[in-house]
Design brief:
Layout: E1 2-7, E2 10-16, H1 25-38, E3 46-49, H2 53-62, H3 68-71, E4 74-77, H4 80-90, H5 93-107, H6 113-116, H7 135-143, H8 150-162
Parallel strand pairs: 2-3, 3-4
Antiparallel strand pairs: 1-2
Helix pairs in contact: 4-5
Length: 169
Amino acid sequence: MLRFLLLPNKICPLLVGMTLAACNPRVGHGLTSAMGTYYPERLGLVVCIHHNPVFQGVWNAFKVFLDPNTAAKMQMMRKKTKFRDAFFRLFDEELATWLMDEVTLNKRRPMLVTQRQFWKGVDASNTVPPSSTSESVETLANEHDPRGCPSYVRQYIEPYLANCSYVSY
């Protein structure tokens, strides 16, 4: 799954669960082309977690064609402890905690409706039924807003939605 984390003056794509099927070189070319064309010098960091080992090989072959500064902005992590430490080193505690919760919920199969319909946020009509999952994941899913960490939702999403009376789910 590809999600973009928008930070001031930076765009950080978060690649979660990169599978062999997604290891088409055109994906990497398309991403770098779009970032270079529409967001030049805005790429802060790409964090790729839970990727397939084959993707690592494809990346190693592909990165020789990239500018070394751009290639250095890609961090690949497979172990939960490694990316947990990286999240808490790179981001503030609120965002790092939100990212860890997001990874936990996105890894769940079948994917929860709250994650599939992330644009709806967390409300009474978009909660996980009590019998569908374990209590801790259920509680996390019903409290976790998949649109972003609380300060991001408060600062960007809620004001935007307040000005968009035509938005309906």
